[in-house]
Design brief:
single chain; Spore Coat Polysaccharide Biosynthesis Protein SpsA, Chain A; seven-stranded mixed sheet; two-stranded antiparallel sheet; 6 helices; 9 strands; 32% helix
Amino acid sequence: MHKTIGFLPLRGGSKSIPLKNIKVINGKPLCYWVLEALETSKVDEIYVATDSKDITDTVNAMGFNKVKIFQRSSKNAQDSSSTESVILEFLEKNSYQENDLFILVQATSPLLDSKHINEALQLLHDSKADSLLSAVVSKRFLWDKTGNPINYNYKKRPRRQDFSGYFMENGAFYINKIQNILKHKNRLSGKIAIYEMPEYTNLEIDEELDWLIVEILLKKYINLFNLFCNLL
């Protein structure tokens, strides 16, 4: 049996919102919401890769059973550092089987739920894909900078209800086998499956306005979920 490893990179630095990853949103630090989704999913191990003592202390205080801290190097915690660089650093310092699954999760998508993770793992298995990403359906009409339409014919403009749209990454999570990541040095490779998430999950928190909108959505959907559970 292969293992499933959840991985959450959290830098201490954030230009748009200082210490964004542990700033309180809807009563909990931002990173709490995705860690809770991982903790209550079928994921076996969870690692928070950080360079910050404040983040380490905050995460440890949450008391999750599966969550451990990975101390990322300073060179992989810069503004210019890629997510792949810290993933590879982690995999080089830890021993796993080639077929173990690696789930990259981003704290800026707190509307993630354990249900999404479990369903995506099942989809990856059923589809026999090599890797998987989460996405939402976008029905926006896109144009390039030179005034050419990208995804529709403006001379035959479709009605929105007749337009199937396209998948747009929502940045919530990515799944791949460890052997693929080490070989291709990328979170995605080979045959890629797409797990469709609800449209309301298309917001990532990068600016203050995003924060306000996501906080409203968190209160709406989490309160509805808790109400549903209490009725069962």
